[in-house]
């Protein structure tokens, strides 16, 4: 069954929902501002000190009174809106879908997969902390709407850069900046409002195949000097005063050590997102306006976007003890048409996490056709697990649900006449592979099914890995407030100790970290895993690149991660 754009069964229900939400928004916004005016970020505090501004107590006093009065004045309208809005959640599909019209022919970068039998797929995941502004401030982040715009521009600027090798004339560089080469198809069906169905029309498939077959484009070795036109969109942090203006205007500031390889895994700490990302998974996009801003920017590169993912109100219906104020925060952008999508909400959330509908999103995407006219598809799964420390049992139960739901989804939607070329699971797992307190999760069976390219074993990371959770109080310090500075910090073990979150010890036990002769890595809680057992038997998967991205410095408290997989299809097996 094809996906429709609206989350509601018809326009009338969608209209009633919009009216109810319009009554709620003013009251919600005034409450948000009431809390935000009382909570400052460390950046705002330092700015007031520099400007010798001592009017903060008056601002808090009069702002609190004003917003509280406005909150009370709009509360009756919000209650009426709630009476319209809440019952309609029972008939709401747990995501909205945006489909962009087909891209221009030059956007298609893969030609000839059916002849070469090779293709690369690039995935990225990032936690953005796009909560309502008042709540984001408790994570030392503010200006949610401005951050959403800046993040979207950074992502598009990073992934749309040319597929070339770039020489960086910089004293701090000892190599070339080697962005990921692109072999991504941009497959789009011609009708707005629905994806390609599970049994598409042959003429439609033929048209899809002509425009965007899967190809392998081999990265040439042409070296070009880095100039300002190479990266049209650099990091324009909403807190622009904290950045060195010259580094924003001069892309040569974005130096890189280039791809390095250790233990057969090529890896890089990069100031830019990988070029030509195929599928992008974002977490903590809770704010609806921020989600729409991201959608409007990312649709320039991604033709298929799922947003506002999750459920609201009483879930299951009529159970007020599990009321969901926020959606799951998941956001998925894909260059490939989405054939099937399914969302499950975790039923065992506890505490403040129970206010959000965290869960699992599973999608099946259409890559194209091979020479035998068999469909080529991929599976992509994203999740955000329970957050509070010391509650590993809840996360383990959620991981059990994740593996069960993925197996059910693939069993229900797998067809005999198609080839599966990738099966990926990613997201913010909220546990790491170095904390003694996360020992239970580190030994979960999910790591037997899916491979983690950064993991040497339970409780042991590979030596080149870096943590992905930043210390929130230091987000705006000079060592981490620009992409280049954050890159240098992650490459220095001494600096990582200051700015990456420390492992969590077991209760009543001192922390001994790192072990002798092991590097200091910190908490890596953002994962991209891949599975080989569920793909077609004639396909072989190789890791082409693992990337830790610093482009969102100052915009979020996480380090985005990227994974590039090279898939080779054996032609002899394919002919059988």
From TrEMBL:
Keyword set includes Zinc-finger: no
Ranges for the Endonuclease/exonuclease/phosphatase domain? 276-533
Compositional bias annotation for Polar residues: 188-198, 251-260
- Superkingdom as given in the UniProt entry: Eukaryota
Question: What family does the Swiss-Prot or TrEMBL record give for this protein?
Answer: Belongs to the neutral sphingomyelinase family.
Instruction: Quote the gene name from the UniProt entry.
Output: smpd5
Q: What is its EC number?
A: 3.1.4.12
Reactions mediated catalytically = N-(hexadecanoyl)-sphing-4-enine-1-phosphocholine + H2O = N-hexadecanoylsphing-4-enine + phosphocholine + H(+); a sphingomyelin + H2O = phosphocholine + an N-acylsphing-4-enine + H(+)
Pathway terms, separated by semicolons? Sphingolipid metabolism; Lipid metabolism; sphingolipid metabolism
Protein name (record): sphingomyelin phosphodiesterase
According to its UniProt entry, the protein's GO biological process terms are: sphingomyelin metabolic process
Where composition is biased (Low complexity), the residues are 235-250
Keyword list (alphabetical) reads: Hydrolase, Lipid metabolism, Membrane, Sphingolipid metabolism, Transmembrane, Transmembrane helix
């Amino acid at each position: 069954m094809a996906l429709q754009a609206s989350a509601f069964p018809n326009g009338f229900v969608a209209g009633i929902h919009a009216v109810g939400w319009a009554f709620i928004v003013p009251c919600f916004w005034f409450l948000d501002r009431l809390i935000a005016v009382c909570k400052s970020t460390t950046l705002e505090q330092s700015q007031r000190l520099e400007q010798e501004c001592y009017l903060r107590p008056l601002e808090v006093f009069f702002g609190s009174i004003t917003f509280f009065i406005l909150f009370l004045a709009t509360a009756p309208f919000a209650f009426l809106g709630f009476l319209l809005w809440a019952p309609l959640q029972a008939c709401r599909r747990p995501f909205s879908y945006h489909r962009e019209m087909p891209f221009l022919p030059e956007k298609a970068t893969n030609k000839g997969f059916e002849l070469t039998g090779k293709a690369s797929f690039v995935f990225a995941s990032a936690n953005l902390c796009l909560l309502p502004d008042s709540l984001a401030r408790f994570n030392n982040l503010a200006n949610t709407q401005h951050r959403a715009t800046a993040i979207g521009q950074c992502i598009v600027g990073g992934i749309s850069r040319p597929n070339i090798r770039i020489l960086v004339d910089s004293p701090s560089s000892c190599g070339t900046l080697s962005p990921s080469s692109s072999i991504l198809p941009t497959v789009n069906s011609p009708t707005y409002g629905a994806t390609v169905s599970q049994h598409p029309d042959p003429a439609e498939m033929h048209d899809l195949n002509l425009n965007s077959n899967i190809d392998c484009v081999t990265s040439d070795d042409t070296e070009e000097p880095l100039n300002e036109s190479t990266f049209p969109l650099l990091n324009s942090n909403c807190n622009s005063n904290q950045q060195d203006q010259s580094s924003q205007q001069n892309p040569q500031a974005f130096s890189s050590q280039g791809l390095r390889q250790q233990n057969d895994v090529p890896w890089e700490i990069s100031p830019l997102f990988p070029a030509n990302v195929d599928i992008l998974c974002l977490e903590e996009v809770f704010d609806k306006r921020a989600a729409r801003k991201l959608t409007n920017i990312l649709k320039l590169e991604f033709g298929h976007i799922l947003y506002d993912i999750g459920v609201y109100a009483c879930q299951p219906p009529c159970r007020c003890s599990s009321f969901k104020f926020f959606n799951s925060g998941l956001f998925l952008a894909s260059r490939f048409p989405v054939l099937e999508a399914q969302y499950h909400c975790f039923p065992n959330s506890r505490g403040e996490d129970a206010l959000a509908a965290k869960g699992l999103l599973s999608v099946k995407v259409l890559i194209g056709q091979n020479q035998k006219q068999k469909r080529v598809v991929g599976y992509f799964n994203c999740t955000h697990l329970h957050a509070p420390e010391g509650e590993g049992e809840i996360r383990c139960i959620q991981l059990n649900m994740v593996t069960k739901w993925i197996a059910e989804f693939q069993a229900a939607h797998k067809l005999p006449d198609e080839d599966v070329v990738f099966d990926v699971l990613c997201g913010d797992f909220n546990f790491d592979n170095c904390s003694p307190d996360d020992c239970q999760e580190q030994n979960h069976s999910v790591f037997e099914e899916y491979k983690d390219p950064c993991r040497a074993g339970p409780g042991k990371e590979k030596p080149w890995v870096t943590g992905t959770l930043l210390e929130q109080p230091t987000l705006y310090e000079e060592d981490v407030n620009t992409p280049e500075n954050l890159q240098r910090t992650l490459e220095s073990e001494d600096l990582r100790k200051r700015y990456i979150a420390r492992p969590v010890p077991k209760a009543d036990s001192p922390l001994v970290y790192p072990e002798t002769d092991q590097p200091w890595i910190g908490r890596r809680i953002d994962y991209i895993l891949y599975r080989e057992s569920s793909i077609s038997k004639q396909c072989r998967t190789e890791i082409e690149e693992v990337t830790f991205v610093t482009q969102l410095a100052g915009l979020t408290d996480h380090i985005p991660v990227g994974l590039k997989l090279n898939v080779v299809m054996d032609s002899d097996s394919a002919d059988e």
